[in-house]
Amino acid sequence: QKEVEQNSGPLSVPEGAIASLNCTYSDRGSQSFFWYRQYSGKSPELIMFIYSNGDKEDGRFTAQLNKASQYVSLLIRDSQPSDSATYLCALDSSYKLIFGSGTRLLVRP
Amino acid sequence: DAGVIQSPRHEVTEMGQEVTLRCKPISGHDYLFWYRQTMMRGLELLIYFNNNVPIDDSGMPEDRFSAKMPNASFSTLKIQPSEPRDSAVYFCATAGASGSEQYFGPGTRLTVT
Predict the structure, then answer these.
(1) A16, A61, A63, B75: least surrounded by Cβ within 10 Å?
(2) Which of A48, A71, A75, A76 is nearest to B101 (CA)?
(3) What pLDDT, in 10s, does the model give residues A58-79?
(4) Do residue A95 and residue B48 have CB atoms under 8 angstroms apart?
(5) Pairwise CB contact (< 8 Å): A43 & B56
(6) Could you report the per-residue pLDDT of A6-34, keeping only the tens digit for each?
C-alpha cells in the first residue's frame, strides 16, 4: 500500500517568512510528485510538480525532491496571508494520484 | 478555458434516493477522475477514465456507486441508493496526455440525511 505522510499542522509562520512543508512517501518506485493548495471550501489547485531529484523553482515556490530519502518539500518564500491554506502532497501511481492528508499553513500578518 | 465544470454544486437528499453528479471536462483532456473527500479519509480516487473508457474502478466503495462517460464532454457518478455515510465532497478532475497533472473542478457537496 503506497502511502504519503504529511504533518497535519497547523504550521504557523509570520508574514514574509519562508514556509517549509514536508512530505514523505513509502514507495521507492514513485517518479512524479505534486503539490496542491486547497483553500477552505474550495477544490485542490495544482501549484507545483517535480519529477527529478533536486530543486524546481516557480516564483515564490520551490519544490525539492530527494528520492534516496523519500521526501518531497515545498518552500514558500515571502509568505503572505493569502498563502494560508491546506497544502496536499501527492504522488503518481500509474495515473492515480495518492494524496497525503495535507498540512494546514497559517501565515500571520 | 472554462475549466472543469461540475453540477450540482450542492445536493441534499434523503437516504435511499438516487443521486447523480455531473462533470464536464476541460476540452481536449483525455483523462477524467472522480474523487471523494471527507475529513476522516481525505481525498480518495474512486474511478478514472481514459478516452471515455473506465480504466480503474478499484476505489469505488461498493455496487451502489457507478460512473459513466458516454462521450468526451460528459461524465456522471451515480449513487443508488444513497446512504448518510456517502456524505462528502465529490470532485471531478481531468488531465491531458500526461495523465498526471490533474485539474480539479469546484466539487459537489453531497449531504445524505
Answers:
(1) A16
(2) A48
(3) 999 999 999 999 999 999 999 9
(4) yes
(5) no
(6) 998 899 999 999 999 999 999 888 889 99
Which H/E stretch holds residue A96?
strand A96-99
Which residues pair with residue B53 across a beta bridge? B50
A32 at the B interface (CB within 8 A)?
A: yes
CB atoms within 10 A of CB B49: 22
Cβ proximity of B112 and B13 under 8 Å:
yes
Taking CB atoms and an 8 Å cutoff, what residues of chain B touch A101? 42
If you average pLDDT over every residue of chain B, what do you get? 95
| Contacting residues of B for A34, CB less than 8 Å apart | 100-102
Contact B95 A95 (CB under 8 A): yes
Higher pLDDT residue, B1 or A79? Answer: A79
Angstrom distance (rounded) from CA A27 to CA B58: 19
Residue A97 has pLDDT above 80, yes or no: yes
Is A32 strand, coil or helix? coil
B26 interfaces chain A, CB cutoff of 8 Å: no
Q: Is the pLDDT of residue A56 over 90?
A: yes
Instruction: Report helix, strand and coil shares of chain A as percent, to nearest 5.
Output: 5, 55, 40
The Cα–Cα gap between A42 and B1 comes to: 19
